[in-house]
Amino acid sequence: MHAYTYSAHPVGCAVAWPNPDIIEGEDFPGQAPKRAVTFSTDCRPLSVTTPTSANPRAGADAGRRIVEDRGTKQEFAADEKVGARVQQAMQQHGLFSPGAR
User: Fold this and answer.
1) Residue ranges in 1-101 assigned as alpha helix (H)
2) Which residues of 14-24 are buried (b: 16+ CB within 10 A; e: fewer)?
3) Angle, CA of 7, 8 and 12, to the nearest 5°
4) Checking phi first, is residue 80 left (phi over 0); if not, alpha (psi -120 to 50) or beta?
């Protein structure tokens, strides 16, 4: 059996065990309002300069769907790894992202 996320596999449990301490130690809840404002403010210009689809949302949990063509909502090809590149850029600017596809 592999280390599936929701299988109660010991590897997944071992990796998850320290998360509450990290979340509290890094004060993620306390940082959320400031990071939400930063993310929302910094992403606003992206609506003009990058092809994003409608329905962006921002707050403590923010999301934006990045597409190759805004009109058709055509997504980028998987081999371009746009999600991973965006995630790396976010981390370089101090923003947290749980993952990208």
Assistant:
1) 10-16, 19-25, 28-43, 46-49, 82-92
2) eeeeeeeeeee
3) 95
4) alpha
Map tokens 């976010």 to a residue.
90
Over the chain, what is the mean pLDDT?
A: 77
With left for phi above 0 and alpha for psi between -120 and 50, is residue 74 left, alpha or beta?
Answer: beta
- Nearest-CA neighbor of 38 among 101, 100, 96? 96
Q: Residue 72 corresponds to which tokens in the numbers above? A: 């058709």
Verdict on whether the full-model pTM lies above 0.85 = no
pLDDT in tens, 61-88: 556 778 888 888 888 999 999 888 888 8
Domain boundaries along the sequence of the chain: 32-92
| Phi–psi pair at 57, nearest 5 degrees | -135, 150
**Distance from CA of residue 96 to its chain's centroid?**
6
